[in-house]
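Q&A log
Question type: sequence-to-structure
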Amino acid sequence: IDNLSDILKKDDVIVTDMGLSFVGTHQAFKVKKGQKLFTNSGHAPMGWGLPAAIGACYASKKQRIICLAGEGGFQMNIQELATVMHNKLPIKIFIYNNGGYLTIKQTQQLGFNNRIMGSNDESGLSFPSYREIAKSHKIRYFKISSSKNINRNIKKVLFGNYPTICELIM
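Response status: OK
Response body:
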């Protein structure tokens, strides 16, 4: 987030989903004058990020939008990729792949005596290949697995006026 914050332009619009994408952004992102950062912290609805990014894209006359989402929240409204694809919306989607519903897992660890259910692979949760999801929607795909060359890789994701999915392996 720190690197992304440095790279983004003063007129960029950033939308976060919930969980780590919300918390991490609010801890590290440095909003520049002219930027807009949208989130929904009121009741933290998982899945809010992608539909909100689509709305922000239309509200800004189809300028580039940055959407930050965990893989769990992203799954809640993944069908909206069809809207992005059909309308060729220049939304750059960064998916935080941290192995499941990390915030839910932490709640289960802390509040339910470490009884983990349906929040990661070991407890019965799996996610699809985001490379294949992107391909099926004719959306560019990148995967960033380490911080090596992070600025160069982020710039590749941000390049162009078309939709892109970037899976961030946490």
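Response note: The beta strands are 13-16, 36-38, 65-70, 91-97, 140-144, 164-169.
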